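Predict the assembly for these two chains.
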Amino acid sequence: SLNCLDWSLLTPATKEILALAEQLNGRFQGDPSFEYNLAEINADVAARLIEGGKEPVIKEEARLIATIEQIDRAVGIVPRGAFVKTPLGSVHENRHFEGLSLLEAKKLSSYFHFTEPVNLKNKTLLEKADLDPSTDFLDSLEHDIPRGSWSIQLEKGGTVVVLRSLLWLGLTFYHVPMTKQFGYVYFGTGEKNLDLPFML
Amino acid sequence: HGPYQPHEPGYGLDQPGYSPYEDEVPDPQARVLAIKNAKAYLLKTSTRSGLNLYDHFANILTKILDEKPENTVDIIEDISKDVKWAQFRKKMDTLRDEHPILPIFEAAEKCKALFVKEGGEEEHEELDEEMPSLPNVIETAFYFEQAGIGLSKDELYYIFLSLKNLINVQPIQTCRFWGKILGLEMNYIIAEVQLHEGEGEEEEETAEEEVETVAEEEKEMGEAEEEEGEEKEKEAEPPKSTYKPPPEIPREEYGTGTNKYIYFVCNEPGKPWVKLPPVTPAQIVCARKIKKFFTGRLDAPVVSFPPFPGNEANYLRAQIARISAGTHVSPTGFYQFANEDEEEEEGDAYEENPEFEPAPVAEMVESLTTWAHHVKGILKQGRCVWINPSQKSEENEEEDEEEEDKEDEGEEQEEERGLPLLTLISEDEGMKNIPAWTARASTNLIPQYSVAILQSNRWPGAYAFASGRKFDYVYFGWGHKYSPESHTPALPPPAQTEYPSGPGITETVDPTVEEEIAFKMAQEEALAGEEEEGEEEEAEDD
C-alpha cells in the first residue's frame, strides 16, 4: 500500500525473480509498476525473456516482494521459546511463553532466525546434547557471519531490549523481557548493507 | 472421602464390575484394600522434593479446570512444570528478602535528577539576564511527528530536560537539538551549541601554544642533527629520505566554517554531556574515505585504512560536520547576506531577513528552489574557506625555500571554489538517477495545516520541515552517506623506491673471462704506450 488506505496483495516470488532482484541496485522508486530494464543488468536473462516473447523488464513490485522475502529469511528473528516444535514436526506458537529473563535477553544466543535451520547439523554432539529439541530447532544468532552484525541495546532503563540488524539497516526487533511481547519491523531503503565487513 | 467425582483418579473403581482388578479380586473387601493401596502409593512422598504425586495431580487438575486451556493434552507437561515451579516460589526465609535492584530502578534514578528543579530564588534572578534560548524540542517534535519522524515522547522530554541542564552548566548562547546517531553498543544524542564569544577561544590558544613549543623543540633537534651530519659528510651516508609530508592544513577557527558550532554529546539523557573537539580538515578528508560504525564509546579507536587521525570522538565530529554541511537547509530568503557588497567568500555571516515572507506549503513541496543551504559546503581540502598551504611555510629555514620554488612550479594547487553560501538545493547533484532530496507534504487531507517535509537521499536520516515561519532540521540515523555503489576502501600507495637508481647500484651482467682478458691486454698496451712516450720525452730533454 502507498497510503495505508488501499492495499494490494503481492504474489509470492519465484526463485528466478529472487535471484534477479538481488542484482538490482539503487533505491526503490515508489511506483509499483516501474520497470527496470533487464538488459543492462543481466543480458542472458533478458535474451531468454525476449525469445520467450516477454519484455526484458522486471517490475518494481516483483523486486519489492523479493526484497521482503530476503529480509524475512535473513533477519527475521524470534526469541527462544516463543515457538515450539511438536514431535510430529509442525511448529506452533508457544502459549506458555513468558518471555526471556533479563539475563537471557542480553545474550545473542537467545534469539533465533525464523527460517529453515542451516547450521544446526554442524554443531558438535556435545552442544547438541544441551539442546532441547522442542525449542532449539532453529539457528541461533550467535553464529551469524560476519560476527557482530547485530547491535543489541537495552532501552528505557532495561525494560525493552532492542536488536538492530546491521546487514539490513533499518530492521529493528524489540522484546519486553518477562512478557510475551516481541516483534520486528523494517523501516528503510530496502537495500542490503554490503559494506558491512568494512564498517565493523 | 465420599464417592469419587469423575475427574478424580480412582473413579469407577468402587463400582462393581469396573475395578481394574476385577478378574483377580472379586471380593469387595479386597477391592477397597486395593483402592487404599493405590491411594497410599499416590500419597507416597518423594524423597527428593517433598511433594507427593497425589497432591501434584490434584493441583494440576485444579489448575486445568480453573483455566480451561485448549488442547490441554498437548501442553500437559508444561502445566505440570508450571505447577511444580509455583511450589518453589514460596520460600519462607527467616532472613529478610533482599529486593534485587533492577537496572530499571538505577536508570530511573538518573532520570529523576533531570526532573529536579533548582532553587526557586535563583530562577528569578536569571530571568533578568539574557536567557539563552532553549529550543522548544517538543514543538519541533510535534512537527516532525506529522511526518512520522522522531523519537518517542518520553525520550524527547528527557532530552529536553537534559538540554536545559546543559544550558545551566555551560555558557551557552544558542542551543539546538541536532539529532541522534545510532551506535553498536550505545547511541549518541547530539546538541549543537554556540558558546558566548571568548569562551571557546581560550582553549584553542593554549592548544596552539603547546603545538608551537613542540615545534620549536623539534627544530632544535633538527639543527643538532644537521651539525653532526656535516662532520660525517665525507663518509658515505645512507641516502636521506626525500619524503616530505604534505603541509598540514590548519583547522578553521572557532565560529567559522566547519567549526562554527560546538557539539555536545551524551549517550543517554541523564548522563553528563561531553564536548566534542573541533574538527581538523585532515579528519574530514579521511572520514570521506572510510565508512565505520560507531560503537558508542567516545574513546574507542577507529581502525581503518587510511588510518584515521583520532579516535571515535573525532570521527563523530567529522561526520557531524559533513552532515551539517550537506543537509542543513532553510526556506529560501529566510537568511540573507549581512553585507551584500562583500565578496561571497568572506561573507560568512548571514542574518535573518526581516522581510521574509514564507512560501505556502504546496510550493515548498513542489519545487526545490524554495529551500537553500545556509551552511557552507566543505571543499575537498576539508575546510570551508580554501587556504593555500604553501603560503604558510614562510617561517621555515633557508633550505626549504629552494624547494618551495620547485613546489610552486610543479604542483600548483588549484584554488578550490565551493558553492556560494546560500545556494538553492535544487542545484544539489543527485547520484545516478536518484535526486538529492525528496519533498512531500505531511498530509494531503488537511492542506491548511500540513507541513512540508524534506528528506535527504544523500544522507539517509536527515529531515527538514517547514511550516510558515517555522522550520527545523534533524538527523536520526547511523551517520553514513548513501552511495549506490559499494564502498571500496583506498588501496595502499605503491611501495616507495628506496634508492634512486644510478650507475653505482644498478645491476649489470658480470663480464665473461674472454672479455676480461681482452680488457687486460688493452690496458697493458696502453701502459706500454705511455712508457714509450715517457722514454722519448726523457730522451728529448737530454
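Chain B touches chain A through 37 residues (CB under 8 Å). DSSP finds 13 helices and twelve strands in chain B.
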